[in-house]
UniProtKB/TrEMBL annotation:
Its cofactor is Zn(2+). This is hydroxyacylglutathione hydrolase. It comes from the Eukaryota. Belongs to the metallo-beta-lactamase superfamily. Glyoxalase II family. Pathway: Secondary metabolite metabolism; methylglyoxal degradation; (R)-lactate from methylglyoxal: step 2/2. The keyword Ligase does not apply. It catalyses: an S-(2-hydroxyacyl)glutathione + H2O = a 2-hydroxy carboxylate + glutathione + H(+). Keywords: Hydrolase, Metal-binding, Zinc. It comes from Prymnesium parvum (Toxic golden alga). InterPro entries: Clx_II_MBL, HAGH_C, Hydroxyacylglutathione_Hdrlase, Metallo-B-lactamas, RibonucZ/Hydroxyglut_hydro. One of its GO terms (molecular function) is metal ion binding. CDD domains: hydroxyacylglutathione_hydrolase_MBL-fold (cd07723).
Amino acid sequence: MEVTPVDALSDNYMYIIADLATKEAMAVDPADADECVALARKLGLTITTVLTTHHHFDHAGGNNNMKKLLGSTLEVVGGDASIQGMTRQVADGDELPLGTGVRVRCVHTPCHTAGHMSYLATANDGSAAVFTGDILFIGGCGRFFEGTPEQMLASSAKLATLDPGTKVYCGHEYTVKNLEFAFDVDPENPDVVSKRTWAEAQRAQGGRTVPSTIGDELKYNPFMRTGTAAVRKYTGGSDDVSVMRILRNKKDSFAGSSRPWIPGGGPLPGL
């Protein structure tokens, strides 16, 4: 299995997942269809499936163009009936084969949107990668546009059960700002400090910060650490639900935080 990140729009990530034995591939959130298809062809890959994490324009907005470029046999999957160009709605636990060496499991992770789906790709050799769209970022998570703190807790707990070595490929390059907030929450955490320093250097050199791993996120991502003393102290919450609610509200108002809107999709309300 090989994963290729592809830049899209201003700060989005698309991904091409390939089974190297058969050269078959899946595209994750190909918002810029022309760029995604051109790169796949350059790599000698045939995209058979589009995996859509959620219905927002900057993730699903290229689906119809993907169908125009690749033809009627292209399968476009997602967990939300409003996803552009969808040909198959999937549910939690559904599995999709990729070539002969990779299988993809659909993982329902609602909160950012009600039908948000993450995709866990596992190769025959046991290596795994999860594509989390906007439910989980490196060092952060997406806004609760259609969900609740309870849903975010459940979705993050579901992702936390994955093997710690599972690579995390998220939907946006928000890492530096997320880790600035994580440092505000837990400034004495050495994992936060080292990851922030690394991310700042990486971005200064024009590099990407994906992938992370599930194990790493459990060390420094405050939205996966609501039960820790530092996060509870920062929020003043008495239980995981109140901690998650307060934490998200504080992140929403944190200086310079990711914009609360979807490119081409108009404004969206926060909590």
